[in-house]
Amino acid sequence: MITKLGEKFTFLFQKYMPDAFVFAILLTLITGLSAFFFLDAKPIEIIVSWYDGFWSLLEFGMQIVLIIITGFAIALSPIINKLIDRLTHYIKTPKKVYFFVVLIGVLLSMISFGWVVITCVLARELALRIKGINYPFLVACVYFSNSAWVTGLSSSIPLLLGTKDNYLIQAGVLSDVIPTTYTLGSTLNIVTVLLFVLFAPLMILLLIPKTKHIKELKDMTEHSYNKEQTSIKNEADGLNLNYNALSDKLNNGILLQIIIVVMGLTYIIYHFHTNGFELNFNIMIFIFLIIGLALHKTPMRYAIAMKRSSSNISGILYQYPFYAGIMGIMLHTGLGKELANMLSSVATLETYPFYAFITGGIVNFAIPSAGGEFAVVGPSIIDAVKDIGAGLPAEEVTAMISRASLSVAYGESLTNLLQPFFLLLVFPIMGAGIKIQARDVMGYFVIPFVVLFIIQSILVMWLPL
Question: What's the rounded Cα separation, in Å, for the pair 264 and 111?
């Protein structure tokens, strides 16, 4: 029954859900019209807010691009291919592939949500080597596994709350940092981690489509796509001149690359020695870069790996500015703050975590970035929690703020299952050489969304922090 229901939702999404870019355009219009009708914002104010926001995620967008291509370049190295070869000796059936892709993806995402690219490469390679895998469902497994990132080391909102002199402290919303013992190290978050590690891989097994007409990767691959690419080493050697040249020695020598790798490793050690185990986008990209340089050995091999990794990232480049524009409308017209105030106004001491959870989920459709979303709604939610907790001990109010902030983060992450934006991280790798759209995989997420919504609502409301 569950499988048939999942297949029904998949059919409905294929029939009615537009392309991810069209989805972004529709959300832009909906957000603009909401500001016009509910806040009486002038059309020119909405358009100016949209334009001003258009460029606000350029840094973030570039970080996402670099996370994808540097991670993909690592996966193209010979050593990773050997590791995947060994893994295929133990994972030999489609059911095991789905289970272990979700489990491994969950664990990787808890280190950094950018590591979904490693899960993508693993899943695609398994799909090439093992028969009977329903590829659109496997893409869904990869994307679903990344939902756990919000509980891990790169979770934006807890890291923000624990950062000295963050913008919330500078604005007077918070008086001091909130240590991660209140957020990532809390009982609530640890139980949520266990939910993803233990329950998510088992739940995915119940959703495996039982249709006879599965779409395998080899059947979906376009004829023009070069399946058997020349190895990176052979391509690099083929670029050499037919006589001894200093340029070839520089291109294919290991000395220069070793020097850069040593410099990079020195900084990485310095970073963690100075800051503790602090992960952010920039250090993750830098680590990926240095590891990739080390694994590919020569500048020319790494350049070829990066070129191959960059071949399918156009969706990110042109869609991120549209979501930044939506964020601009939400921020500059006051629509985001108004929404947070509206939901907070009906919250009580017992229900505020649930309303924070709902707020995070709703606003995520317009601002699919936890950090960007919290910048818009976070201050209003924290102020509302402080009002609700007026008269309580300071430590208890801090715990309430932590619970509300985690609730926003969980809501934001959960509705990514209905919001195709972050499929942009998955499709450059898993969609290479095939025709696949968001509508082909989004239907598989409806049941996991409903189940996790119920469970996480209960957890944020009643589980002790």
Answer: 20
Which of 77, 119, 126 has its CA nearest to residue 301? 77
Tokens of 198: 């233990």
Cβ–Cβ under 8 Å, residues 419 and 368: yes
Residue type for position 16: Y
Other Cβ atoms less than 10 A from the Cβ of 156: the count is: 20
Distance, C-alpha 309 to centroid of its chain: 18
Q: How far is CA 335 from the centre of its chain?
A: 25
Domain regions of the chain by residue span: 2-217+258-462
CA 17 – CA 437 distance, rounded (Å):
10
Q: Token digits for 107?
A: 């664990």
Q: Nearest 5°: CA angle at 153, between 451 and 112? A: 80
The model's pTM is 0.79
DSSP string covering 46-89, please? HHHHHHHHHTTTHHHHHHHHHHHHHHHHHHTSHHHHHHHHHHTT
**Which single residue is written with the structure tokens 């893409």?**
139
User: How far is the C-alpha of 108 from the C-alpha of 96, rounded, in Å?
Assistant: 18
Q: Taking a C-beta distance cutoff of 8 angstroms, is the pair 64, 320 a contact?
A: yes
Q: Phi and psi of 326, rounded to 5°?
A: -60, -45
Range 295-298 contact pairs with CB under 8 angstroms and sequence separation of 24 or more: 295/74, 295/77, 295/78, 295/79, 295/80, 296/73, 296/77, 296/232, 296/257, 297/254, 297/257, 298/236, 298/251, 298/252, 298/253, 298/254, 298/257
pLDDT, tens digit only, all 465 positions of the chain: 555 665 565 566 556 667 768 878 888 898 899 899 988 889 999 999 999 888 877 777 787 788 778 877 887 888 887 887 787 778 889 999 999 999 999 999 888 777 788 898 889 989 988 888 999 999 999 999 999 999 987 787 887 788 777 777 877 778 888 888 889 889 999 999 999 999 999 999 998 887 777 888 887 777 655 555 678 888 888 888 888 888 878 888 899 999 999 999 999 999 888 887 666 667 878 988 999 999 998 999 999 988 888 876 777 788 778 878 887 888 788 887 787 777 667 888 888 999 999 989 988 887 777 777 787 788 888 888 888 888 889 899 999 999 999 999 999 999 999 888 778 788 888 887 888 888 888 889 989 999 999 999 999 999 987
CA pair distance 293, 76, nearest whole angstrom: 12
The residues pairing with 434 across neighbouring beta strands, listed in sequence order, are 221
Asked if residues 436 and 220 have their Cβ atoms less than 8 Å apart, the reply is: yes
